[in-house]
Amino acid sequence: MEYFIQQLINGVTLGSIYGLIAIGYTMVYGIIGMINFAHGDIFMIGAFLSLIAFLVLGIVGITWIPLALLLVLLVSMLIASIYGWTVERLAYRPLRGSFRLAPLISAIGMSIFLQNYVQLLQGARVRPIPPVISGGFTFLEGGIFSITVSYLQIVIVLLTIILMTAFALLISRTSLGRAQRGCEQDRTMSALLGINVDRTISLTFVMGAALAAVAGMLFVLYYGVIDFYIGFLAGIKAFTAAVLGGIGSLPGAMLGGLLIGLIETFWSAYFTIEYKDVAAFAILVLVLIFRPTGLLGRPEIEKV
Amino acid sequence: MNENNNRLRGIDITALLKESAIAALVALGLTIVMLGLRTVDTTTGLGITTRWPLVVLAVVSVFVGRLLFALRREWKAGGQPVQRDRKKAEHRAAIIVQRFSTIGGPLFIAFALALPLLPFADRYVVDVATYVLIYVMLGWGLNIVVGLAGLLDLGYVAFYAVGAYSYALFAFYFDLSFWVCLPLAGLCAAGFGVLLGFPVLRLRGDYLAIVTLGFGEIIRVILLNWYSFTNGPDGISGIPRPTFFGLELKRTAAEGEQTFHQFFNLDYSTMHRLIFLYYLILILALFTNFFTLRIRKMPIGRAWEALREDEIACRSLGINPTNTKLTAFALGAMFAGFAGSFFATRQAFISPESFTFIESAVILAIVVLGGMGSQVGVAIAAVLLIGGTELFRGLEEYRMLAFGGLMVAIMVWRPRGLLAHREPTIKLHSGKAPPEEVIKAVTQGGMK
């Protein structure tokens, strides 16, 4: 039982990170109907930016953790946003209105480019970082297993909840959110009504990238090791999460992220750890076969 | 207003400078952390070194590059808004391609056939040519799936891996020869294609892309972890070489058998084997090409192309989309299986390392850059991409970087591929003008 609860807590933590990345996929898919293939790599860049920012802060001597976290968060969100914007500008915008596979392929090219760019600039070896936040609460001591909730896990889950709420409000209350929802439904009509469609799409990429950067920072804190290749698997899993929750739906992305995190954690805890990546893909295939619209998605009607 | 001072031949210099400054600012944002600071291993963990000159260089070059780009754009337009006539240019290219493929295709094949006999064809050239031809074949195989049927398959390498491993494992466990295993490997790969395709081909294009991507990864993970069966990351070595109608291409034959050079009374040379492998893959590739060209004209091929263009129309005309797509998927997979078993026999060693996502991306890039559906285009793209990057072996670290960048650039520049070619394979009426007499008769008939 203790083991189960411990795995549940670990799963929720991992799920929060996947959920944050999944939002980027779901938003972009919602607005332009395309998978942003480079999103996993934006996440990876976010992780690297955070790592570098932590190191710089360590050198400068800012060691008060809340301030350090905030600064790192701001830096990595800002710069990852620029990366997100650039990806859209270079790989998506020139191909808007082109045939369907073209942007997908240019995004794959972008993803390959970014991976090798980081490998070239920051080295191919894994980059470890000492734990920034340590310690935690321990429950039910004395049994075979005890339950530990680290401060870090609390930070991750709290941060995710705050950001999710902020984003839900942004989408439902602000004019930018309204513009996004408008573009999602009918781009031409939105343009006729005076919405700058290009700008809205750019901002969607920027928002997705910012959240991916947060996920990257949390990943660095949680695992402590990163390399240039983490974006690929994390990206696929987060995409699975977005599909599972129903692509295009924000709460769906979060739910899907949590589920994928839980499934992966329980799979490695109770079955085999080697095949944990297979679990995520198997779920993706099963969901697509039996419920292609996902858990919270709307059915899509194909028009002639 | 000093507008007149800032205008040169109708070009608004201030606006251009502003545009370039913004681009430079973005470049600064992109590079200041990732390029400016580098994490290095030190004795006490990670440290940081700085590379500010590189950042300055990047920012300045982006500024200058953007300015030149904008100047050229404005200069061409003469201060007028630009109207790009991309369609027309592409159409012109398509005509050239079409002419070229009727003449160039046979020339290409003739050159490929003669290559090992040419004076400059040493060991290295033949080896690289063999390597390129594997990709030509894979490109043609994937072209059936992507180019003809319009299904985006990002896990094509999985079928390649299935082919390679099925040959290696058949040879290892059952001691079967290459020639028995080649069709078996194709069948295995096609079987996997059906297995995967059956559930997912009902899905829309992008979902299919991600599921195939996942499938490719699953195959690799299984090959990596199923140690007792596939030998895991250590791979399988000592895969037997193919024989030439029962003659081995070795220095000494096994007891009671002859080798190739003994049979033909030649001096032994390792080149024989290389050239034999080269012709083997050439024949396999040409077979793929021939198969594609023929099947395009058959009902199933027509159905693929029709499905690519309009699925709903096809449904209403009674074509079963799932079965039709499934055949394309399975046939594409089969050719990947053939290529895979050739790869295994050529390398004599395979490991899951050879079948990563990057391989899938490279093959897809070949198909897309070549112009989807164009056989000659795919061959040229394979020669350029694989042969071209082979030349830059020394710059290994920049190779994939340039590759990714190239993929983006070509898509933006020519979304339909280098040799865009999208003529329908069938037309209701022949495009030729009717003969002179007919026109005369009709017009005179009308006048009377």
Describe the secondary-structure layout.
The complex is a heterodimer of chains A (304) and B (448).
Chain A: H1 2-32, H2 39-60, H3 65-92, H4 101-122, E1 127-128, E2 136-139, E3 147-150, H5 151-173, H6 175-185, H7 187-192, H8 197-223, E4 225-226, H9 230-245, H10 250-270, H11 276-290
Antiparallel strand pairs in A: 1-4, 2-3
Chain B: E1 7-8, E2 11-12, H1 13-34, E3 37-42, E4 45-50, H2 52-77, H3 86-114, H4 123-148, H5 156-174, H6 178-200, H7 205-225, H8 227-230, E5 236-237, H9 260-263, H10 270-295, H11 299-309, H12 311-316, H13 321-347, E6 349-350, H14 357-370, H15 375-391, H16 396-413, H17 436-447
Antiparallel strand pairs in B: 1-2, 3-4, 5-6
Task: Give an overview in words.
The complex is a heterodimer of chains A (304) and B (448). Chain A has helices spanning 2-32, 39-60, 65-92, 101-122, 151-173, 175-185, 187-192, 197-223, 230-245, 250-270, 276-290; strands spanning 127-128, 136-139, 147-150, 225-226. With 304 residues, chain A is mainly alpha-helical. Chain A has a single domain, classed as ABC transporter involved in vitamin B12 uptake, BtuC (Orthogonal Bundle). Chain A is globular. In chain B, the strands form 3 sheets. In chain B, strands 1-2 form a two-stranded antiparallel ribbon. In chain B, strands 3-4 form a two-stranded antiparallel sheet. A two-stranded antiparallel ribbon of chain B has the order 5-6. Chain B has 448 residues and is mainly alpha-helical. The termini of chain B are far apart. Chain B has helices spanning 13-34, 52-77, 86-114, 123-148, 156-174, 178-200, 205-225, 227-230, 260-263, 270-295, 299-309, 311-316, 321-347, 357-370, 375-391, 396-413, 436-447, and strands at 7-8, 11-12, 37-42, 45-50, 236-237, 349-350. The mean pLDDT of chain B is 79. The chains are: A mainly alpha (304), B mainly alpha (448). At the A-B interface, helix 2, helix 3, helix 4, strand 1 and helix 9 of A face helix 1, strand 3, strand 4, helix 7 and helix 14 of B.
